[in-house]
Design brief:
The protein has a 7-stranded mixed β-sheet with strand order 1-7-6-2-5-4-3. It contains 5 helices and 7 strands. It is an alpha/beta fold. It has helices at 10-23, 40-50, 84-89, 92-96, 140-145, and strands at 3-7, 28-34, 64-67, 72-77, 100-105, 118-124, 131-138. Helices cover 28% and strands 28% of the residues. The mean pLDDT is 91. Helix 1 (10-23) crosses helix 2.
């Protein structure tokens, strides 16, 4: 099952990220897909707002930003990684065992490392164009949270 939303503004993308984080009760894994400039980091800022975090930027050069929230928010950016082995080399397995929410931009670059239970968020569009956001729950928990009756 997939959920599609047409997003016209940055504020709408922020709001969608906030609603998704609330629906997940701030626990789980969100894999973000989309081209450069699609709005992945804007969506991530919306997720962070649900945690009370005011400022978020893409962790392209640091690979991961860990926010001291309760539960914790881990914001990954796999753009500079060549494969899943590099992700595991920085301790990705440990992050998967933590209690909190992992949000990963450029998830397609490390697809083999992604957990089976996750929410895939694909954003299509760039520049001043409207975006189409597709939410695809993977795994039993995510499918239960994002069913046809979902108010996202």
């Amino acid at each position: 099952m997939t959920i599609r939303r047409k997003i016209m503004t940055e504020d709408e993308m922020l709001a969608l990220g906030t609603r998704v984080a609330g629906k997940l009760d701030r626990h789980g894994f969100i894999a973000l897909y989309g081209d450069l400039g699609a709005g992945k980091t804007v969506f991530a800022r919306g997720v962070a707002q649900a945690f009370g975090i005011a400022h978020v930027s893409s962790p392209t050069f640091t690979i991961v930003c860990e926010y001291p929230t309760e539960p914790k928010l881990y914001h990954f950016d796999a753009y500079r990684l060549s494969d899943a082995d590099e992700l595991y080399a920085i301790g990705f397995s440990d992050y998967l065992g933590e209690h909190g929410l992992i949000l990963m931009e450029w998830a397609n670059l490390v697809e083999t490392a992604l957990p089976k239970d996750r929410l895939d968020v694909t954003i299509v569009g760039s520049g001043m164009d409207a975006r189409t956001v597709t939410l695809e729950p993977r795994g039993e928990r995510m499918e239960e949270l994002f069913n046809e009756d979902s108010c996202i």
